[in-house]
Amino acid sequence: MTATTRWSTPGGPWIVTPATAPARFAAARASGATVTVVDLEDSVAPGGKDAARERAADFFATADPAGPVPGIRINALTNREGLRDLTTLADYPHRPQIVVLPMVESARDIELAAAALDTDSYAPQLWALVETPRAVEKAAEICAAPRLAGLAFGAADYAAATGAARTWEALLHPRAQLANSAAAAGIAALDFPWFDLKHEQGLRREALRARDLGLPARSPSTPARSWPSLRRSAPPRNNLFTLAPSSPPGSGPTVRSPASTAA
């Protein structure tokens, strides 16, 4: 018996593009990805947050029903930038269908985002980034939040907080914890980005392991021109390598990959 999800989660590759790089917006939309996420957080310097919010508004100025599902990653709700993000994106002409929330440590973070964004005609999917030891300990509570659609593991921050290595063995416990909590709550869970730029086979190997654990996606953390097996038409630094959650018996894994970077 397989787990069922309580949300209709977009399948296929997700692309993340910096809000401060509007020249990449058109290429992101045309990349063939299922979801395009405009980033206000890690890819934006602390002094560039206001400009990033203004640039992101350009991305959401028009709707493209035939294009990728539009999403946005805001700053953590534990700081002013995250709160400013919420109030700003609520006024975008065409609001994102997916909102990614970083540094989530409580179901209260999900409730706060929903309270700020939800209206009678608008309720985006909310995705939580689990990036701290406290968040892993509270994974079941976070996943039980009624408005949560899915979560993703933020291994870099988790490893920094715990002193753990970014290896399969060192991070097996938090991965298994998140996969189990997400499955019990009926939501999707994604694995963390791949950091070894020269080791494509390592990406494939760990993507298979993660899929078998219940975490179906991995993403390279750099321009996909580093990955010759990926297609070549997406904007720089925007890429996600995705394995289908399951495959027919005997068929091996189904690999979906977005376009890689354009020069």
The count of DSSP E runs of length 2 or more, i.e. the number of strands, is 13
| Oligomerization | single chain
- Overall domain count: 1
CATH topology: TIM Barrel
Strand content: 15-25%
Order of helices and strands: EHEHEHEHEHHEHHEEHEEEEE
Proper CATH architecture: Alpha-Beta Barrel
Instruction: Please write the CATH class name.
Output: Alpha Beta
The residue ranges in which pLDDT falls below 50 over 5 or more consecutive positions are 220-263
**Percent helix range:** 25-40%
N- and C-termini, Cα separation: 45 Å
Q: What would CATH call the homologous superfamily?
A: Phosphoenolpyruvate-binding domains
Report on this structure.
Helix content is 32%, strand content 20%. It has 9 helices and 13 strands. With 263 residues, it is of the alpha/beta class. It has helices at residues 25-29, 49-59, 80-89, 107-117, 133-137, 139-143, 155-162, 172-185, 200-213; strands at residues 14-18, 35-39, 69-73, 98-101, 125-130, 148-153, 188-190, 193-194, 217-220, 231-234, 241-243, 255-256, 259-261. The chain has one domain: Alpha-Beta Barrel (TIM Barrel), CATH 3.20.20.
Quickly describe the structure.
This protein has nine helices and 13 strands. The longest helix has 14 residues.
Features:
alpha/beta; 4-stranded mixed β-sheet; 263 residues; TIM Barrel; 13 strands
